[in-house]
Structures are given as structure tokens and as C-alpha cells.
Specification:
alpha/beta; Helicase, Ruva Protein, domain 3; Rossmann fold; five-stranded parallel beta sheet; 12 helices; 5 strands
């Protein structure tokens, strides 16, 4: 209903947005430069941020730029598992040998990583999402898995994506050793007001809508309620447009945003 009322040709803030249409804010661009660093030097990278700031979106975009003939890409969203299942997941994604014991799984994973990187010239890129759910024991095992040639060689890229509080866990003594092995860290912040307004106007414009349908006060209200978090802002704008269309309002005001926010 709101799309027809406001003349939108598509759905703004959609997860199915084409990579070339993504809004590339300053943090996004900086994160891409860090991805390029880990792409060159390999090892472990940690990406943190609050829910909804765009961690997975940035990862999805970057992965789409990697040529499959040069990189073997793996995405693992299931992180609430024990040690053996953690091994099985990695081994299965790498197309390793169908084994079940921890010792054999470890051997299969390392052999498969070396086979890809050394013999096929395809660097394994293993993304573990929501890894703040990983148990400490899984981090211990990951550290061991990545010990190649007496810890002198990085044949693969592991990218850990997590909520901010994982950084606090890594400061504890029990995870100090793993923390020291993280090659690069990047934290994504919520957007500023100007950044969030640009994000919203970009999303409306690529879908054929006039961004001026929201008043300046309405934009500020979206920012204040969402705290600059992309996902929260997108949901609020969609809800507000639905509210506006239902009440046949050609322009969105601060009051409309506040009214719509009560229904989220």
C-alpha cells in the first residue's frame, strides 16, 4: 500500500538489495579497506558492532567481490555448538573427509586448507557469524586449527563477526592467547545523523521515491529513536510510510514517526 501511495518501484532497506546499490558510508568503506588488508596477509580478523549496524551486509558485499577461482568462500552462521560439532561444521564446509573423531577431523581440516591454498591456489575464507555465541573451548580449538608449520604460516582467512561484548571476553586471561592471534580488529559504529539521513535518502531514491517526503524533523526523529542503527532505522521508516499511506499523508512529519514507533 505505501509503495503505490509514495511511488516506490521497489522495497527500500531490503536484504535482497543488489551489491552495487548498497549505501557505502564511511565506516563501510573503512571496513572494506581492512578486508583488503586481511585478504593480502591472511589470518584472523574480528568485526564487531551492535545488532543491526550492517556487519553481515558488509561481509556479504565483500565476499561477492572475491573471485571463486582464487578464494574458497565459507559462511557459518551456526555458532551455538560444542567442540566436535564445531569441527564437523568446518570440515563439512571445506568438503573434508567424512570422519567423526576429533583427531581425524582436525587432520582433515588442516589437510583441506593446505590443499586449497597450496595446491589449488584458492585461499579459504571462512566467515563465522554471531561468534559471540561461541564457547571459550571453540576459540581454543580454532587457535589450534590455525597452527600451521609451527605457527609460522597463515594459509587461510578466518573472519569472526560478533556483537561488541565479545571484545570484553577477549580481555579476560582465559582468552588472552587467542586475542593476541587476531591480526586485525574493526568495530562498526551506528551512523551519525547526517550519515543516517544519507542512508535513508539513498534507499528511497534507488526505489524511485522522493526523499523530501520526510521533513527534517522526521529525519531527526528517526535518528533519535533508532540511535543511528541501520536496521532499526529502516524498519521505522517503513512503518512510518505505512502509517502515512494509511492516513493519506503526502508528507511525513515528526509526529508521524513518533506515532509509528509505538507500533514497532
Amino acid at each position: 500500500m505505501y509503495r503505490a501511495f509514495y511511488g516506490l518501484s521497489g522495497i527500500p532497506f531490503s536484504k535482497e538489495i543488489k551489491p552495487e546499490n548498497l549505501f557505502k558510508h564511511d565506516d563501510f568503506k573503512e571496513l572494506l579497506s581492512r578486508f583488503d588488508y586481511i585478504k593480502k596477509y591472511r589470518g584472523i580478523m574480528l568485526v564487531t558492532g551492535e545488532p543491526g549496524v550492517g556487519k553481515t551486509t558488509a561481509l556479504r558485499f565483500w565476499l561477492s567481490t572475491l573471485k571463486p577461482e582464487s578464494f574458497f568462500k565459507i559462511y557459518m552462521p551456526l555458532s551455538t555448538v560444542g567442540v566436535v560439532d564445531f569441527y564437523k561444521q568446518i570440515n563439512g564446509k571445506l568438503n573434508g573427509e567424512p570422519v567423526s573423531s576429533k583427531v581425524k577431523l582436525f587432520k582433515s581440516i588442516q589437510q583441506r586448507i593446505m590443499e586449497l591454498s597450496s595446491n589449488q591456489n584458492r585461499i579459504p575464507v571462512i566467515v563465522i557469524d554471531e561468534c559471540h555465541f561461541l564457547k571459550n573451548e571453540n576459540f581454543f580449538e580454532l587457535q589450534i586449527i590455525l597452527n600451521f608449520q609451527m605457527d609460522s604460516f597463515d594459509p587461510a582467512i578466518f573472519i569472526l563477526s560478533a556483537q561488541s561484548h565479545l571484545n570484553d571476553r577477549f580481555q579476560r586471561t582465559i582468552l588472552k592467547s587467542f586475542n593476541q592471534r587476531i591480526n586485525i580488529k574493526y568495530h562498526i559504529n551506528p551512523l551519525s545523523f547526517s550519515g543516517l539521513k544519507s542512508f535513508i535518502t539513498h534507499s528511497l531514491q534507488i526505489n524511485g521515491a522522493n526523499p523530501d517526503i520526510l521533513s527534517d524533523a522526521a529525519y531527526k526523529a528517526v535518528f533519535n529513536i533508532s540511535n543511528g542503527v541501520l536496521r532499526a532505522a529502516g524498519k521505522l521508516v517503513i512503518k512510518t510510510l505505512s502509517f502515512g499511506a494509511a492516513n493519506k499523508k503526502p508528507n511525513i512529519t515528526e509526529e508521524d514517526v513518533l506515532a509509528a514507533s509505538k507500533e514497532l
